[in-house]
């Protein structure tokens, strides 16, 4: 029987063991996430005839369920056992996933969007309660000096797993859809059952991670909730984070819907684009973690956020080409940049929230941050769904037409319709939110321009080392080239120049 009681003092071996188990638990949970969320959940919803408002509601549920974190604070204060709380509510969160899978596979006539939304609500509600305890638990477990590096390494492992599983699953779904269309709902049901069981395995691993004992005061929940709001610097971070997630949640939940409904992309193409994004995220997240630890999380945010905003605006140009490959090439660029930017943004937002939260009141600070941003994250997709319906019959086309002898050519510069309006609105609001980021202060903050110069220098040095090392490893090829020349003395003079 595994004891879930926290320890007064953790040894270095306990910490290292907990960090290793944290990665394994994350991989089990990531398996569940891949099979039961994202593009696959959207595809299942569209298969069941979901409306734009229902799509927006599903996207809003994770944020809305964060109100449950107030209950988590009370439980932590009452029992002072974050591990037990995380384990209990993680199990409760996984059960609805398995139930959805069983109903979809064995009782297909009983499943509906209302059923999906109801059980997803319980999934997100309990997962949110577990997540807050987990965040505060990890803040005390992971040493602050390696926090950025650890979470970036953990994220890279999870994203690698995500890439492999998503691609295999997407091709499997498309194959079943083409060859055995009547089994498509059964396939999604099987995915939810497997995902839920893997999530339960993740809970078992989670229960083995040690927890250092936390110390909370005797303040009431209301006082704990108000305390972070009196911290001016944390309040500025809260304002930026709330405005930022609101801006993005208007547009981002409908990317997959746009590709499936308007562009007629199959799930394989969508997952391929997602994988491109994840590969770019994997390739950059460790660098973001290193630079965040060396300089500051705010600096990384000020670099990545504008890139992400440009990508959202670029979605407005998707579909203006008549050829599939032209649109797909544009999407590849967008997804690649979004992946690199998202890695830095998510890592920095998580770390800066943990960093600005005082140790003793960490759970209260994180709860307030999650609860308030949840309100804006909940409203955003609902407004996005409403706007998608509003702009259904409205179009804005900007084009240039050239008419001459023997030629009549039209160049489409911009074509805004139902979904594209959402992307423009989200990009503009996200750009405005950056004004609030400037006011946030972080210890060790370094000027953005200086970090950009250092990053460029680092990249150049890495490339230089790569090419010099490559020349050294291929010295025999250079030597053969010299021997084959008729004038070896000339070749010897030119060799240093080639290097």
Automatic annotation (TrEMBL):
SUPFAM superfamilies: MFS general substrate transporter. Pfam families: MFS_1 (PF07690). InterPro entries: MFS, MFS_trans_sf, Sugar_transport-like. The keyword Transmembrane helix applies. The keyword Membrane applies. Keywords: Membrane, Transmembrane, Transmembrane helix. The chain crosses the membrane at residues 87-107, 113-137, 157-176, 188-206, 237-260, 266-288, 300-322, 328-349, 370-388, 419-438. This is MFS transporter.
């Amino acid at each position: 029987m595994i004891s879930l009681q926290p320890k007064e003092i953790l040894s270095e071996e306990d910490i290292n063991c907990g960090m290793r188990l944290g990665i394994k638990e994350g991989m089990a949970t990531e398996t569940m996430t891949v099979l039961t969320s994202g593009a696959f959940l959207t595809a299942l919803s569209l298969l069941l005839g979901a409306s734009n408002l229902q799509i927006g509601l599903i996207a809003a549920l994770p944020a809305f369920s964060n109100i449950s974190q107030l209950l988590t604070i009370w439980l932590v204060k009452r029992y002072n056992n974050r591990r037990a709380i995380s384990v209990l509510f993680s199990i409760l969160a996984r059960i609805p996933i398995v139930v959805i899978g069983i109903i979809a596979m064995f009782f297909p006539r009983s499943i509906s969007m209302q059923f999906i939304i109801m059980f997803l609500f319980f999934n997100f509600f309990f997962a949110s309660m577990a997540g807050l305890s987990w965040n505060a638990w990890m803040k005390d477990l992971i040493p602050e000096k390696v926090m950025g590096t650890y979470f970036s390494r953990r994220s890279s492992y999870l994203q690698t797993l995500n890439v492999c599983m998503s691609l295999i699953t997407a091709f499997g779904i498309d194959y079943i859809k083409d060859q055995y269309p009547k089994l498509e709902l059964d396939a999604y049901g099987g995915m939810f059952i497997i995902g839920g069981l893997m999530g339960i395995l993740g809970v078992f691993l989670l229960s083995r991670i040690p927890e250092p004992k936390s110390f909370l005061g005797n303040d009431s929940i209301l006082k704990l909730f108000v305390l972070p709001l009196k911290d001016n610097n944390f309040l500025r971070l809260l304002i930026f984070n709330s405005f930022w997630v609101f801006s993005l949640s208007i547009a981002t939940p409908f990317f997959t819907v746009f590709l499936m409904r308007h562009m007629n992309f199959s799930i394989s193409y969508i997952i391929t684009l997602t994988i491109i994004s994840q590969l770019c995220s994997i390739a950059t997240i460790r660098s973001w973690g290193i630079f965040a630890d060396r300089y500051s999380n705010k600096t990384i945010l000020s670099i990545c956020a504008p890139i992400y905003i440009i990508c959202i605006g670029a979605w407005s140009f998707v579909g203006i080409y008549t050829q599939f490959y032209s649109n797909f090439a544009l999407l590849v660029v967008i997804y690649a940049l979004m992946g690199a930017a998202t890695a830095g943004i998510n890592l920095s937002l998580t770390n800066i929230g943990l960093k600005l939260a005082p140790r003793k009141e960490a759970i209260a600070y994180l709860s307030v941050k999650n609860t308030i941003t949840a309100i804006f994250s909940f409203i955003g997709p609902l407004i996005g769904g409403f706007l998608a319906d509003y702009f259904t019959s409205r179009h804005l086309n900007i084009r240039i037409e050239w008419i001459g002898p023997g030629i009549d050519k039209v160049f489409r510069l911009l074509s805004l319709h139902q979904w594209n309006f959402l992307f423009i609105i989200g990009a503009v609001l996200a750009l405005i939110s950056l004004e609030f980021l400037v006011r946030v202060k972080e210890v060790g903050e370094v000027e953005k321009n200086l970090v950009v110069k250092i990053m460029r220098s680092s990249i150049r040095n890495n490339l230089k080392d790569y090419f010099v090392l490559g020349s050294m490893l291929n010295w025999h090829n250079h030597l053969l080239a010299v021997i084959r020349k008729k004038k070896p003395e000339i070749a010897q003079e030119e060799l240093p120049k080639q290097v």
